[in-house]
Amino acid sequence: MTTVQDGLRDLTRYLGEDRGVASPESAVEHPAREARLLLAHAMSVPTERLTLLAYDTLDDDILEAARLFVRRRRRGEPASHIIGRRAFYGREFKVTKDVLDPRPETEILIETALRAPFQDVLDLGTGSGAILITLLAEAPHAVGTGTDISPIALRVASQNATAFDLQKRARFEMSDWFQAVGGSYDLIVSNPPYIAQHEMDDLQSEVRLYEPRIALTDEADGLTAYRKITTGAPDHLHLGGRLIVEIGPTQAQAVAAMMADAGFQDTDVIPDLDGRDRVVCGYWPGKDGETLP
User: Fold this and answer.
1) Which CATH number belongs to the domain containing residue 256 in this structure?
2) pLDDT tens digits along 17-71
3) Angle at which helices 4-16 and 60-74 cross, to 10°
4) In angstroms, how far is CA 67 from the centroid of its own chain?
């Protein structure tokens, strides 16, 4: 007889084992946390229920499903892909191999955006829709548009909007940056592909091999998207509107200079919790002679 507690102990041990450089499998960084996540998924219960169920007997088929999940995890597949969801800003979002996983660092962009009110927001390269949906959930009177060049990503984003009952305030459109975007917004946000091509081999395998490459790199210097965003944003921002983008930790100076060259003012660089440059924000002062209506 295997109890939930016994199963969790064995799964944690397996996830944490260092199987050596000759093996394609390697230990994960947080074995106990991920074992709980994967076992709870196999049992179809919230992770917090595991403590209450510690001495219950695990059915053989559930235990085998959990073992399959941990084997997949040991081979490098992200736990979020195995369970099909990822936590972000206190909510659980559907994720697949076709969208970039939302990460805690991106919550700095959310916090920056929420420092000032907005009525309409544009999220360029929306992916799972996590950024747009979070902003709309936190700003209940706002509406927004998310764009992406991937129709599959747009379906995932739409499903996430429906899951949070935001389908009436969020719309999603296929667009290559500003190509199909019309109208103006109070706020434009983006977490574009910013990893340079020569940096890709240095990424963790679970990122490099399992997340969409098009969401990671521009296959160039990592700055291509910022050039397009900063030059196109002025035509789609209201007077006094903001442009906020996530960046790689070495890109702040270059991106801030692009915003300044495009006419943005009061450009600010915001670090993440580890002290690394993470977000660049600029204000649009309007074109010459433009005034508030």
Assistant:
1) 3.40.50.150
2) 865 544 455 678 889 999 999 999 999 999 999 999 999 999 999 999 999 999 9
3) 20
4) 27
